[in-house]
Amino acid sequence: MPPSKENQIKPENWVDRYSDFLFNYTITRVNNREIAKDLISETFLAALKSMKNFKGEASERTWLVSILKRKIIDYYRRINSKKGKAEVKINYRNEGDDGDWLEQQVSNRDGVSAEDDLMNDELRTTIFDCLATLPEQQAKVFKMKTIDHYDTEAICNELNISASNLWVIIHRARKKMAECMQDKWL
Amino acid sequence: MSKREDLQQSDCEKYGIFCEKCQYDEASYWERFKLKFHLLLCGGCREYSKNNTHLSEAIRNAKLSNLTPEEQENFKQMLQNNLVEIRVNEE
User: Which NCBIfam families would you find in this protein's record (chain A) (predicted)?
Assistant: First the structure.
Protein backbone atom coordinates (compact mmCIF):
# COMPACT_ATOMS: atom_id res chain seq x y z
CA MET A 1 0.00 0.00 0.00
CA PRO A 2 1.49 3.42 -0.86
CA PRO A 3 1.85 5.80 2.08
CA SER A 4 -1.28 7.85 2.66
CA LYS A 5 -0.97 11.55 2.04
CA GLU A 6 -0.48 12.68 5.63
CA ASN A 7 2.02 9.91 6.25
CA GLN A 8 4.46 10.83 3.53
CA ILE A 9 8.09 11.54 4.27
CA LYS A 10 9.12 15.17 4.00
CA PRO A 11 12.68 15.63 5.28
CA GLU A 12 12.48 19.35 4.45
CA ASN A 13 9.99 19.74 7.32
CA TRP A 14 11.63 17.53 9.91
CA VAL A 15 13.54 20.27 11.70
CA ASP A 16 10.60 22.67 11.97
CA ARG A 17 8.12 20.02 12.94
CA TYR A 18 9.98 17.55 15.09
CA SER A 19 13.41 18.79 16.17
CA ASP A 20 12.21 20.35 19.44
CA PHE A 21 10.18 17.26 20.27
CA LEU A 22 13.06 14.90 19.50
CA PHE A 23 15.52 17.10 21.36
CA ASN A 24 13.42 17.10 24.53
CA TYR A 25 12.91 13.37 24.24
CA THR A 26 16.65 12.84 24.01
CA ILE A 27 17.94 15.32 26.54
CA THR A 28 15.88 13.82 29.36
CA ARG A 29 17.58 10.52 28.61
CA VAL A 30 21.18 11.53 28.05
CA ASN A 31 21.36 14.74 30.08
CA ASN A 32 23.82 16.44 27.78
CA ARG A 33 23.03 18.96 25.08
CA GLU A 34 25.86 18.10 22.72
CA ILE A 35 25.27 14.36 22.92
CA ALA A 36 21.55 14.90 22.38
CA LYS A 37 22.29 16.90 19.24
CA ASP A 38 24.66 14.22 17.95
CA LEU A 39 22.05 11.53 18.49
CA ILE A 40 19.45 13.56 16.61
CA SER A 41 21.87 14.09 13.71
CA GLU A 42 22.48 10.35 13.61
CA THR A 43 18.74 9.76 13.69
CA PHE A 44 18.07 12.14 10.81
CA LEU A 45 20.84 10.55 8.74
CA ALA A 46 19.61 7.03 9.42
CA ALA A 47 16.09 8.15 8.57
CA LEU A 48 17.22 9.65 5.26
CA LYS A 49 18.93 6.40 4.38
CA SER A 50 15.91 4.30 5.18
CA MET A 51 13.24 6.61 3.75
CA LYS A 52 12.31 3.99 1.21
CA ASN A 53 11.40 1.51 3.93
CA PHE A 54 8.88 3.85 5.51
CA LYS A 55 5.53 2.22 4.95
CA GLY A 56 3.29 5.02 6.12
CA GLU A 57 1.75 2.83 8.80
CA ALA A 58 2.88 5.09 11.62
CA SER A 59 3.14 8.86 11.62
CA GLU A 60 6.40 10.38 10.53
CA ARG A 61 7.15 11.43 14.09
CA THR A 62 6.54 7.97 15.54
CA TRP A 63 8.85 6.55 12.93
CA LEU A 64 11.61 9.06 13.75
CA VAL A 65 11.22 8.37 17.47
CA SER A 66 11.59 4.64 16.88
CA ILE A 67 14.89 5.28 15.12
CA LEU A 68 15.98 7.68 17.85
CA LYS A 69 15.23 5.09 20.56
CA ARG A 70 17.63 2.67 18.93
CA LYS A 71 20.29 5.38 18.71
CA ILE A 72 19.90 6.16 22.42
CA ILE A 73 20.23 2.50 23.38
CA ASP A 74 23.30 2.21 21.14
CA TYR A 75 24.75 5.23 22.89
CA TYR A 76 24.27 3.60 26.29
CA ARG A 77 25.85 0.42 25.02
CA ARG A 78 28.83 2.42 23.79
CA ILE A 79 29.49 4.29 27.01
CA ASN A 80 29.02 1.20 29.10
CA SER A 81 31.45 -0.86 27.09
CA LYS A 82 34.00 1.94 27.56
CA LYS A 83 33.59 1.92 31.31
CA GLY A 84 35.30 -1.43 31.81
CA LYS A 85 33.85 -4.66 33.05
CA ALA A 86 34.68 -4.40 36.77
CA GLU A 87 32.48 -1.38 37.16
CA VAL A 88 29.72 -3.02 35.24
CA LYS A 89 29.74 -5.99 37.60
CA ILE A 90 29.58 -3.78 40.66
CA ASN A 91 26.53 -2.07 39.29
CA TYR A 92 24.83 -5.23 38.27
CA ARG A 93 24.99 -8.40 40.29
CA ASN A 94 23.00 -10.91 38.31
CA GLU A 95 25.42 -12.02 35.68
CA GLY A 96 22.82 -14.16 34.05
CA ASP A 97 20.69 -11.18 33.10
CA ASP A 98 23.24 -9.58 30.81
CA GLY A 99 20.74 -8.98 28.06
CA ASP A 100 18.51 -6.68 30.04
CA TRP A 101 20.68 -4.47 32.09
CA LEU A 102 21.56 -1.80 29.55
CA GLU A 103 17.95 -1.02 28.92
CA GLN A 104 17.25 -1.03 32.63
CA GLN A 105 19.89 1.61 33.13
CA VAL A 106 18.35 3.72 30.42
CA SER A 107 15.06 3.87 32.21
CA ASN A 108 16.26 3.85 35.82
CA ARG A 109 19.03 6.36 36.21
CA ASP A 110 19.34 8.71 39.19
CA GLY A 111 16.32 7.40 41.02
CA VAL A 112 13.94 8.81 38.44
CA SER A 113 11.29 6.16 38.13
CA ALA A 114 10.20 4.83 34.81
CA GLU A 115 6.71 5.98 35.70
CA ASP A 116 7.81 9.62 36.07
CA ASP A 117 9.53 9.38 32.74
CA LEU A 118 6.46 7.96 31.13
CA MET A 119 4.25 10.67 32.56
CA ASN A 120 6.64 13.39 31.49
CA ASP A 121 6.86 11.84 28.06
CA GLU A 122 3.10 11.98 27.75
CA LEU A 123 2.98 15.53 29.05
CA ARG A 124 5.64 16.66 26.61
CA THR A 125 3.92 14.88 23.75
CA THR A 126 0.65 16.66 24.58
CA ILE A 127 2.41 20.03 24.79
CA PHE A 128 4.06 19.57 21.40
CA ASP A 129 0.85 18.25 19.84
CA CYS A 130 -1.01 21.31 21.11
CA LEU A 131 1.76 23.66 19.99
CA ALA A 132 1.42 22.19 16.51
CA THR A 133 -2.21 23.35 16.35
CA LEU A 134 -1.27 27.01 16.93
CA PRO A 135 -0.67 29.44 14.08
CA GLU A 136 3.04 29.75 13.41
CA GLN A 137 3.65 33.14 14.99
CA GLN A 138 1.68 32.35 18.14
CA ALA A 139 3.64 29.14 18.60
CA LYS A 140 6.92 30.96 18.05
CA VAL A 141 6.22 33.76 20.52
CA PHE A 142 4.83 31.32 23.07
CA LYS A 143 7.91 29.11 22.85
CA MET A 144 10.34 32.03 23.08
CA LYS A 145 8.57 33.43 26.12
CA THR A 146 7.61 30.27 27.98
CA ILE A 147 10.26 27.69 27.13
CA ASP A 148 13.30 29.76 26.25
CA HIS A 149 12.47 32.48 28.81
CA TYR A 150 13.41 35.38 26.57
CA ASP A 151 12.73 38.90 27.83
CA THR A 152 9.67 40.62 26.45
CA GLU A 153 11.90 43.32 25.04
CA ALA A 154 14.20 40.85 23.29
CA ILE A 155 11.27 39.12 21.58
CA CYS A 156 9.77 42.45 20.53
CA ASN A 157 13.07 43.51 18.99
CA GLU A 158 13.67 40.25 17.24
CA LEU A 159 10.18 39.93 15.76
CA ASN A 160 9.64 43.65 15.34
CA ILE A 161 6.38 43.82 17.29
CA SER A 162 5.18 46.09 20.11
CA ALA A 163 4.90 44.89 23.70
CA SER A 164 1.11 45.17 23.67
CA ASN A 165 1.07 43.19 20.44
CA LEU A 166 3.20 40.51 22.10
CA TRP A 167 0.79 40.16 25.03
CA VAL A 168 -2.18 39.81 22.69
CA ILE A 169 -0.35 37.02 20.84
CA ILE A 170 0.61 35.35 24.12
CA HIS A 171 -2.99 35.57 25.33
CA ARG A 172 -4.34 33.95 22.16
CA ALA A 173 -1.70 31.23 22.28
CA ARG A 174 -2.25 30.42 25.95
CA LYS A 175 -6.01 30.38 25.53
CA LYS A 176 -5.69 27.75 22.84
CA MET A 177 -3.04 25.80 24.75
CA ALA A 178 -5.21 25.74 27.88
CA GLU A 179 -8.18 24.55 25.84
CA CYS A 180 -6.14 21.89 24.08
CA MET A 181 -4.55 20.54 27.26
CA GLN A 182 -7.54 20.92 29.52
CA ASP A 183 -9.00 17.42 29.34
CA LYS A 184 -5.87 15.61 30.28
CA TRP A 185 -3.52 17.86 32.14
CA LEU A 186 -5.15 20.98 33.60
CA MET B 1 -24.43 39.93 20.59
CA SER B 2 -25.81 42.74 22.73
CA LYS B 3 -23.75 45.80 23.40
CA ARG B 4 -23.33 44.82 27.01
CA GLU B 5 -22.02 41.33 26.24
CA ASP B 6 -19.74 42.88 23.69
CA LEU B 7 -18.35 45.28 26.26
CA GLN B 8 -17.92 42.51 28.79
CA GLN B 9 -16.01 40.41 26.32
CA SER B 10 -13.54 43.12 25.43
CA ASP B 11 -13.18 43.75 29.16
CA CYS B 12 -12.35 40.10 29.81
CA GLU B 13 -9.90 40.23 26.94
CA LYS B 14 -8.13 43.06 28.75
CA TYR B 15 -8.06 41.19 32.05
CA GLY B 16 -6.96 38.05 30.22
CA ILE B 17 -3.87 39.94 29.16
CA PHE B 18 -3.24 41.12 32.75
CA CYS B 19 -3.55 37.47 33.72
CA GLU B 20 -0.87 36.48 31.17
CA LYS B 21 1.45 39.17 32.51
CA CYS B 22 0.98 37.73 36.01
CA GLN B 23 2.01 34.29 34.74
CA TYR B 24 5.36 35.70 33.67
CA ASP B 25 5.61 37.97 36.70
CA GLU B 26 5.49 41.06 34.55
CA ALA B 27 2.23 42.67 35.69
CA SER B 28 2.43 46.07 37.36
CA TYR B 29 0.99 46.60 40.82
CA TRP B 30 -2.12 48.23 39.37
CA GLU B 31 -2.66 45.52 36.81
CA ARG B 32 -2.54 42.88 39.52
CA PHE B 33 -4.87 44.85 41.73
CA LYS B 34 -7.41 45.46 38.97
CA LEU B 35 -7.27 41.81 37.92
CA LYS B 36 -7.87 40.60 41.49
CA PHE B 37 -10.89 42.87 41.77
CA HIS B 38 -12.26 41.71 38.41
CA LEU B 39 -11.80 38.05 39.38
CA LEU B 40 -14.11 38.61 42.34
CA LEU B 41 -16.87 39.60 39.96
CA CYS B 42 -16.30 37.44 36.90
CA GLY B 43 -16.58 33.65 37.03
CA GLY B 44 -15.37 33.19 33.46
CA CYS B 45 -12.11 34.99 34.13
CA ARG B 46 -11.72 33.17 37.44
CA GLU B 47 -11.93 29.87 35.61
CA TYR B 48 -9.49 31.02 32.95
CA SER B 49 -7.06 32.31 35.53
CA LYS B 50 -7.10 28.95 37.32
CA ASN B 51 -6.49 27.00 34.09
CA ASN B 52 -3.80 29.44 33.09
CA THR B 53 -1.89 28.82 36.31
CA HIS B 54 -2.20 25.08 35.77
CA LEU B 55 -0.86 25.52 32.24
CA SER B 56 2.21 27.29 33.62
CA GLU B 57 2.75 24.50 36.13
CA ALA B 58 2.37 21.77 33.51
CA ILE B 59 4.92 23.43 31.28
CA ARG B 60 7.31 23.91 34.17
CA ASN B 61 6.93 20.25 35.12
CA ALA B 62 7.67 19.14 31.58
CA LYS B 63 11.13 20.77 31.90
CA LEU B 64 11.34 21.64 28.24
CA SER B 65 14.38 23.07 26.56
CA ASN B 66 14.50 23.96 22.91
CA LEU B 67 17.15 24.08 20.28
CA THR B 68 18.44 27.54 19.42
CA PRO B 69 17.64 28.91 15.94
CA GLU B 70 21.30 28.37 14.99
CA GLU B 71 21.20 24.74 16.07
CA GLN B 72 18.05 24.23 14.03
CA GLU B 73 19.68 25.90 11.04
CA ASN B 74 22.64 23.51 11.34
CA PHE B 75 20.29 20.53 11.28
CA LYS B 76 18.55 21.94 8.22
CA GLN B 77 21.87 22.41 6.43
CA MET B 78 22.96 18.90 7.31
CA LEU B 79 19.69 17.41 6.06
CA GLN B 80 19.75 19.48 2.91
CA ASN B 81 23.32 18.43 2.04
CA ASN B 82 22.63 14.77 2.62
CA LEU B 83 19.35 14.89 0.77
CA VAL B 84 21.05 16.34 -2.30
CA GLU B 85 23.69 13.63 -2.09
CA ILE B 86 21.11 10.87 -1.84
CA ARG B 87 19.15 12.21 -4.79
CA VAL B 88 22.26 12.52 -6.92
CA ASN B 89 23.19 8.93 -6.12
CA GLU B 90 19.72 7.76 -7.05
CA GLU B 91 19.91 9.29 -10.52
Answer: sigma70-ECF
pLDDT of residue B45: 95
CB contact under 8 A, B55 and A15: no
Instruction: State pLDDT tens for residues A96-113.
Output: 545 555 555 554 555 556
Provide the ipTM. Answer: 0.83
- Is residue B45 in some structural domain? yes
Q: Domain check: are A95 and A7 in the same one?
A: yes
Q: How many domains does chain A have?
A: 2
Q: What is the mean pLDDT of each run of 10 residues along chain B (91 residues)?
A: 63 93 95 95 94 94 88 93 83 73
Q: Dihedral of CA A162/A168/A174/A176: which sign? A: negative
Decide if B55 and A186 are in contact by the 8 Å CB cutoff.
yes
Domain that holds residue A32: 1-112
Chosen from A171, A177, A181, A182 to mutate, greatest number of chain B CBs within 10 A? A171
Which of A94, A112, A130 is at the close of a domain? A112
Residues 60-119, chain A, touching B (beta carbon < 8 A)? none
Its pTM stands at: 0.76
Phi, psi of A9 (to 5 degrees): -85, 125
What confidence tens digit (pLDDT) does each residue in A45-75 have? 999 988 888 887 888 899 999 999 999 999 9
Dist. CA B80–CA A131, nearest whole Å: 25
- Crossing angle (nearest 10°) for helices A163-185 and A114-133: 130
Chain B environment of A178 (Cβ under 8 Å)? 48, 51-52, 54-55
Dihedral angle of Cα A133, A138, A140, A145, to the nearest 10 degrees:
-120
Chain A residue whose CA is closest to B84: A48
